[in-house]
Amino acid sequence: MLKRINGQDDMTGAEVAIRDADFPLPFVSGLEYNAPARGLWNIVHTGMLVPESHQVFACARGCLRGVILTAAEMLEMGRMSWVSVEKNDFFDGSLERNIVDGTAEIVRKLPHKPRAVLLFISCVHLFAGCDFEAILNELRAEFPDIDFIDCYMNPTMRKSGLTPDQLMRRQLYAPFAPCPAEPKTMNLIGNDRPTDDSSELVKLIKTAGWELRDITLCRTYDEYLRMAKSALEITYLPTAKASGDALEKRLGRKHLYLPLSYDFDEIERNLNLLADALGVAAPDWSEAKRNALRALEHAKEIIGDTPVEIDYTATPRHIGLAALLAEHGFNVTRVYTDAMIEEERPAFERLRTLAPDLLLTATVHPKMRFAGKGVHERGDVLAIGQKAAYFSGTKHFVNIVSGGGMYGFDGVARLAERMIEAATHEQDTEVVIQHKGLGCRSCL
Amino acid sequence: MKQTARIISIHAADTSGVCSMLYELGGMVVVHDASGCNSTYSTHDEPRWYRQDSMIYISALTETDAILGNDEKLIADVAAAARDLSPRFIALCGAPVPLLAGTDFPAVAAEIEARTGIPAFGLHTGGIRSYLAGASEALEAVMSHFCTDSLPRTAAPSVNIIGATPLDFSVNGMVESMIEWLKRSGFELVSCMAMGSTLDDIRRASVAHVNLVVSSCGIATAELLRKRFGTPWVAGVPVGERFPAVLASALKTAAETGACALPCAERDASGSGKTLVIPGESIFSGSLARAIELDAGVPCRVLCPLEAEDRLLAPGDLRISDEDEVAAAFAEASGVIADPMYAPVCPPDVPFIRLPHEAFSGRCYRKETLNLIDRPLPWRL
């Protein structure tokens, strides 16, 4: 039985018609609610991508608990250890010493020596002026055959530079040292799931005779280190761009940012840029485009005028996706987003014209506490993303995060297929969306 | 080594204790933090989060606001949300960065109360102590403010349960079973602090003849009610077959004499050699230890990794502060009854019985949680 305590129905401040919305921040920031959709990866999930590595978190109990239980739920407690921070550590000079001694003892006790240790410090360490470099130097001296990677759990600094997610994706490749490049090898950087083999991106790389390397496909630490020798870095998620830029600077490799997009012109432009970088002629994309259009038309026939709601966790280009669907006749009624990225500005302007009544709805606004589980009855909804599923209360949703590994024209076609599947099959929303880290193993 | 663990979990933090204790009381709880505390709490520490609405929020603290001491943003944001949502009270608590910055939460709360007219409390968390500390302070603050009237006692014997949160009792029917047991034992329930009762229910706490403290986070409130209304308290959880009768008798005696009692700690395993060991919250673990001794005749000692007053522990019980001490105590035991996340440090030749504790393993083993209230223990010991 669902309980509501205040019956808040006035959504002023928590939703706005796109015609009236400001870009990129449609809502005033304030207190924040945390909706129970857990599919987005956090820094623990991402860090676990480094094969044969071990994570050590140094932070206060409140922060530790979340990361420890993330590892526990994904059945990886054997790769997670911790050093807690106590109040006196800030006053008696033991902050750095505790981390060095604690981490060293953990490493000595591990049944198998890891190839890399991801050592995380937190907001309070940075706030207290912790000398992380000294900590790392001492550990590297004691364990010269282990790569110690400096990592950060610092959400307090999320508006002061890179977000923790961006920082994590950058540090994921920190052990890569300058070395000669191997011809015709390239990296897909910063993704937390493999990109579909059917995508034009992967197909083009392979037909051009290039070897595609991706941390999501690495099984050993040596395979992972071989990525340092790749001649080309490609990113397509906004949160991965800083990672590609860092590798370009440090390794002297070319970095191409080919953003995930739902705009056919931008997709074609990206794929042509890729062909150019690979040294091959750009194929004719007409057939791929036609396939995507046919898939959209087919999905529209099945989904009809069912309201479609999209959230920002499904794809970083959620406004662009809404615009694509609206352009092809779908009844897109709502997009859940708290802030938009600058890349989305053209799509935002397009969508404002296409569907001026479409609602932008916050996910963190305090009123959203009382807007979940479909309490604002809207009949059948097809949701794209877990938060849209939660707020709309639908059992029909496309269960993806961060683009779901779909890319290009093929990505559009695949997403259309996933929409049909969602429209025609129910899922247990409460169970599915509460599993942490979509795609990871789970003990739940 | 202190403050270090290779493989075991850590108990929920004080901020989660605050939120868990106040969840059902119609107030607004704001954790002054960037994001982690609320995400951890709502994902791992709060089984009610999906189905039951409660005004638990974070302030979304930023580095700039922390460094510049921009408390005005916190005050204005809380006041704005309170105007929209009309909570019965507002509780503020902080994560590690505000602790380090020295944020004066009582002062911030006073300013919010002045602006909104809604009772507001500033609590002294920092994301460093355990859930027990936060839950204790939160409940005491609310009761101190709202439970001021000395009302006539009920005609029939009656009781408040103090200290119940899902962190210690999950949502598997244990609290409901305790209430049923109280009824069968001849007690009327006035309120359960704080699962299943409203703020108005717990405001009437003074009508009870005696208070049953089921977690050490309830001791401070029980003491407050004792000092304010003369209500005695008894510490224990009615687990197993025989201990519930002992506890019921202690409640009756306390109601009659006005003297407090701790049946959960009326044990002595100090001279017993190898014993079963039970790590966990002191009142629940102590009650289970007593129940096992009564039902199976097996000596037990409690391993206490959390804050607990000395009087809650019995001779032979041990305070433990890190993974090495846990492992050493397990190695000396005849058996272990503990949360499954302790299993990796239990020697293979020491029998290990799984008893999930949500405050330690979160939702990982929620499906395995056991309702041990007033029934035979499910193990052959």
List the helices and strands and how they pair.
The complex is a heterodimer of chains A (444) and B (381).
Chain A: E1 15-17, H1 43-47, E2 53-59, H2 61-73, E3 80-84, H3 95-109, E4 116-122, H4 123-127, H5 132-142, E5 147-153, H6 164-171, E6 182-188, H7 200-207, E7 211-214, H8 221-226, E8 230-235, H9 241-251, E9 254-257, H10 264-278, H11 286-303, E10 308-311, H12 318-327, E11 332-336, H13 345-354, E12 359-361, E13 382-384, H14 386-392, E14 397-398, H15 408-424, H16 429-432
Parallel strand pairs in A: 2-3, 2-4, 4-5, 6-7, 6-8, 8-9, 10-11, 10-13, 11-12, 13-14
Antiparallel strand pairs in A: 1-12
Chain B: E1 4-5, H1 14-22, E2 28-32, H2 36-45, E3 55-58, H3 63-68, H4 71-85, E4 90-94, H5 96-101, H6 105-116, E5 120-122, H7 131-146, E6 158-162, H8 166-169, H9 174-184, E7 188-193, H10 199-203, E8 210-213, H11 219-229, E9 233-235, H12 243-257, E10 276-279, H13 282-296, E11 300-304, E12 318-319, H14 323-331, E13 335-338, E14 352-354, H15 358-361
Parallel strand pairs in B: 2-3, 2-4, 4-5, 6-7, 6-8, 8-9, 10-11, 10-13, 11-12, 13-14
Describe what you observe in this structure.
Chain A is α/β, with parallel strands linked by helices. Chain A has 3 domains: 167 residues, Rossmann fold (3-Layer(aba) Sandwich), CATH 3.40.50; 121 residues, 3-Layer(aba) Sandwich (Rossmann fold); 97 residues, Nitrogenase molybdenum iron protein domain (Rossmann fold, 3-Layer(aba) Sandwich), CATH 3.40.50. Chain A has 16 helices and 14 strands. Chain B has 381 residues and is of the alpha/beta class. Chain B has 3 domains: 133 residues, Rossmann fold; 107 residues, Rossmann fold (3-Layer(aba) Sandwich); 104 residues, 3-Layer(aba) Sandwich (Rossmann fold). Chain B has a 5-stranded parallel sheet, sandwiched between helices. Chain B has a 4-stranded parallel sheet with strand order 3-2-4-5, sandwiched between helices. A 4-stranded parallel sheet of chain B has the order 7-6-8-9, with helices on both faces. In chain B, helix 1 packs across helix 7 and helix 4 crosses helix 6. The longest helix of chain B has 16 residues. The two termini of chain B are 32 Å apart. The mean pLDDT of chain B is 95. Chains A and B meet through helix 2, strand 3, helix 3 and helix 4 of A and strand 1, helix 1, helix 2, strand 3 and helix 3 of B. Strand 3 of chain A pairs antiparallel with strand 1 of chain B, so a sheet runs across the interface.
